[in-house]
Amino acid sequence: MTTRMMGEKVRRVEDDRLVTGNGQYVDDLLPGALEAAVLRSPHAHARIVDIDVDPVLDIDGVVAVYTYEDLTGPMAQPLPVLIPHPTLTHGRAQYALAKDEVNHVGEAIAFVVARDRYIAEDAVSRIRVSYEPLPPVVGVEAARAAEHLVHPDVPGNVAARMEQSVGDAGAAIEAAPHRLTLELDIERSASMPLEGRGTVARWDTDARRLQVWSSTQTSTGVRAAVAAKLGLDLAQVDVITPDVGGGFGVKILHPWPEELLVPMAAMALGQPVKFTEDRREHFISSAHERGQHHEVEVGFDDEGRLRGLSVRFWHDHGAYTPYGLIVPIITSTQLLGPYKPHNYRVVFESLYTNTVVVTPYRGAGRPQGVYVMERTMDAIAAHLGKDRAEVRAVNFIQPDEFPYDHGLTFQDGRPLRYDSGDFPASLEKLKKLIGWDDFEAMRDELRARGRRVGIGLACYVEGTGVGPYEGAHIQVETSGKVKVAIGLTSQGQGHHTAFAQVVADELGVPFEDVEVVTGDTRRMPYAVGTFASRAAVMSGSAAALAARKVKAKALRIAAEALEASVDDLELVDGVVRVKGAPDSRMELGTVAVLSNPLRYAFDEASKAATQFSVGNADRPPIAEDDQPGLEGADFYSPQQSTFANGMHAAIVETDPDTAEIRILRYAVVHDCGTLINPMIVEGQIHGGVAQGVGGALYERMAYDSSGQLLNASFMDFLMPFVTEVPESIDIDHLETPSPLNPLGIKGAGEAGVIPCSAVFASAIEDAEGLPITSMPISPSELYHLRLRHKEGRTTS
After folding, report:
1. What DSSP string runs through 276-336?
2. Which among 82, 112, 412, 557 is placed 20 to 30 Å from 642, CA to CA?
3. All structural domains of the chain
4. Global pTM exceeds 0.70
């Protein structure tokens, strides 16, 4: 039997190319193309009185200048609100180029195309814009106060108000033996991929066909948007996603203004055009996330068991709502984690501010929700004087309660129904991994040496594999090589390896013979995108189904050729053979020839096919209900999301003098159902934890009251170096396969980042004995928190 690839730690096939500098990114493409630069607003809120482009027109090398006045048809209309929702009563989207008003620093106003980027940037600096400044609204508190409005037709700056409930939370809290209230904050951050956004376009005038290359997470979405906005048939547009230097959610939005302006200019000018975002542009004109303020009321019994939970929160979505309410809906539902609140009410308002728009950033609302729930669990444990792990355990959904329906609606419009898991088993694994029961002895020993340490843990559940669908196309060539086309893009997740493992097992071919192509609408025109930990569930399932279809066809063709029953055949290592008769066999490449019986022998496989009696006089060469070629496509559309879960724990040390925070140990237990490649999953966890460390301890978007971003460079926006992330992460897996898809998979892409703020808040609070209610918390903030606490004790 062939070696099974599923579950094996196979080295990623894409890595050799990428680490040797042979990757190809958007900015590497079409050298010599015209290059574009964007004039961006210096104001957070202002009316545009006049734009004077005359000083630019005579600059040698400038080819074209566009403002809103140059846009026509659909291009002159606002960009789409991609995901409408009934409660999004006041959704707003920006224009490709600002029309009458700018609503955040960095909003695009003019687009210059020149011989090179240097000339384009010089030209942008010479455009004269007259502004009438308007009062900016910055931050949740200012948005709630509504002394000024971001959009004059949006009362109270409220784009949406949404409420969900199960049971009677108010009555349950009132009747509970114990009650607590908490106020909790998470501030804005951003994903900061190494490669910013980028787009290149080329218009073939003769063929009337547009080719677009974009550093995106959704090539088919960009294709649809470009076709709609530029008045083209979908078949006239190809979007190809080359290597992408990180996405993390910021490249999920489609279209960004530049993804329309670049192809528009390429069509108008008849020359290729390129735009590559610089780092400051990424800070002020891409997307942020995380900013929320929560108010919590909880009632519980003497064991710490939840009786009722009520949460109200305010979500800062920036100046526009291009991605709808996905982030706060996820927060409101995934907040519940692995627990049974019995009675739950959640209300949120999504608010406009004069800041950069919000789209999902790795974790997508879950880090905020997990932070709130886990801080609540820690507060309950502290109130009762109980072990924090024990309080969590008494609230767990039990293994025999799956599927567990929370009675809420998830972000995909489907029920919030968990499909599988074993939370008690995960907790036991985590406690052993981190040494939970031995920590007090460790604390005492280190305290005797003047060191201050704390331990924390956090649990989460992550909805993954959100629909509506993904597809895969598989073709077997006469060489026996297997070509797989997936509509998803890839930003480093290991798709070319993982999907090859799935196809190799399902089809029965050597792993080395499988080649995967992603993110090319010429190869797979129908897809949704790479986000929300959905790739393995969606495209993995689609690839398995397509492989099964191709295998069935191969066995059917081979059965005729070998004059055997399909039931007597097996496909192993790329060879179809009769079970128990090893000499009665044929290569899969030969089957591919027989599936498309041409008159001519082009290669050795074609010659080999002539020995088999297919296509003889009394039987047509192709079955009546079949098509030529050993290939097939299939699509997977889920009933609902599947829910992965996990638990993290950390031991930290805080310096008694400088308040520096050092991570001594970090442990993860993760359950993503059936593992395709444990090494890839562990890599995802490591990367996620690194981002989580940044989000918990360093990274924030520091706006002043005028809406200026004060730290829009890597000199000022703090990111963790390798010295700040854990030297090693102890990881253990639990596999509870999902019953919802053919492979039992649950997603893993965001697992590492989701609980980090909660874990570090818990551990730092344990070390310091101070309540941690706002994240991120830097050493300087911890230092000042100590001072305020000390002053409070002194005055009292």
Report:
1. E--HHHHHHHS-BB--EEEEEEEEE-TT--EEEEEEEEEEE--S--TTTTHHHHHHHHHTT
2. 82
3. 32-134 (3.90.1170.50), 292-466+639-795 (3.30.365.10), 467-636 (3.30.365.10)
4. yes
